Amino acid sequence: MLAPPDVKRCGLKPRLLDLFSCAGGAGMGYHRAGFEVVGVDIRPQKNYPFEFHQADAIGFLAAHGHEFNAVHASPPCQVYSTTRHANDKADAHPDLLAPTREALSRLGLPYVIENVEGAPPLAPLTLCGSEFGLRAHDVDGVPLALRRHRLFESNVWLMGAGGCFHDSTQVAGSYTAGRHRTPEHRDNPARRGGYTPALNVRAQLLGIDWRMNEHELAQAIPPAYTEHIGRQLIAQLDRVAA
């Protein structure tokens, strides 16, 4: 791997570097859009579904970024998350948003930086599960909907998928592990906080069809988001190559 493929001349898939990859929610979306995906994370990711390298993300970008056509990065978001009050280790996570942006800007490739609401990306696009019809039925058949707003900064102009469509369907999420997993809790009028259904229901809501554990699902980007973005990145690469 010494240079990115000339996708127009060689008929190859464009290559995308998936930084801070976790278990591959973002990477799967880019794969479905048409990219060859390579993931990098500081921790081992046994459930990552594509080629994976355990390494420092920014260091790997500096050494190998020129081998790719585009880059996605999801730097740690715990410091910005609205659930940080429930995470006694949130402040231990470094704020790598600005250093990641600086490294990507130096590289000069099309890039996307993803983060949570409350983070300070530049002119971000917000995507919501309701734009993509992310729904599933609970274990008792009750329909559930996913919202999971995420922010996407890019040096490529990105379009949304129609904006939020928040209807009256019961909203569910996957931010907590091992709690709030029964319809009895869902239907309790005294319930506090969001409703987290069973593991298989959470996976369906997110569009995750490969193995992830509870923690990985809690961190995952729905692949529908990055499939939508990935198609726009490929269109941009095609325009540049034309």
**How many helix segments?**
8
Query: SSE string, helix = H, strand = E?
Result: HEHEEHEHEEEEEEHHHH
Beta fraction = 15-25%
Termini gap = 24 Å
Q: What number is the mean pLDDT?
A: 88
Beta-strand segment tally: 10
| Rough outline | globular
Low-confidence segments:
83-88
Radius of gyration: 18 Å
Helix content: 25-40%
Secondary-structure class: alpha/beta
The largest pleated sheet is described as: 7 strands, mixed
Biggest sheet strand order reads 3-2-1-4-5-9-6
What can you tell me about this protein's structure?
This protein is α/β, with parallel strands linked by helices. The chain has helices at residues 7-10, 25-33, 57-64, 97-107, 183-186, 199-206, 214-219, 223-241; strands at 15-19, 36-41, 51-54, 70-73, 111-116, 125-127, 135-137, 143-145, 150-154, 170-171. The strands form two sheets. Strands 3-2-1-4-5-9-6 form a seven-stranded mixed beta sheet, sandwiched between helices. The protein has a three-stranded mixed beta sheet with strand order 7-8-10, with helices on one face. β1, α2 (25-33) and β2 (36-41) form a beta-alpha-beta unit. The two termini are 24 Å apart.
